[in-house]
Design brief:
5 helices, mainly alpha, elongated, about 80% helix, about 120 residues
Amino acid sequence: MATGISAHEIRRPTAGFGIASVTVAKSLDAGTTLVGLSLFERTEELNPVMRAGFEAVGMFPALVWFSFASVLLVTVVTETGVLLWTRLGRPPRVVRFVGYGIPTVTATVVAAHNGLVIIRCWA
């Protein structure tokens, strides 16, 4: 009767894919935000928390830290959900799909919106 974590539980390829997808999406969001706000004076950050971060530490550091913190938060919440879900004997796929999928889609939509704003300002 073995106890502890199995090799299968350690490898978690879907967790790695989920973390990577959220990281890429948040990076696109932060990158398009940085470009849009840096190049065009008529654009503005609509998120009051981000605006406060910009005022406190500057645009680039705030974007990096908030992006890192959001990916970390998504990962901790999702993997905690996976731990609780698997203790009930259920597969973790659904929790990871929702936990990583919704933030990935949201950040991708925001990045696409930012890109459209940049294109409109450029024209």
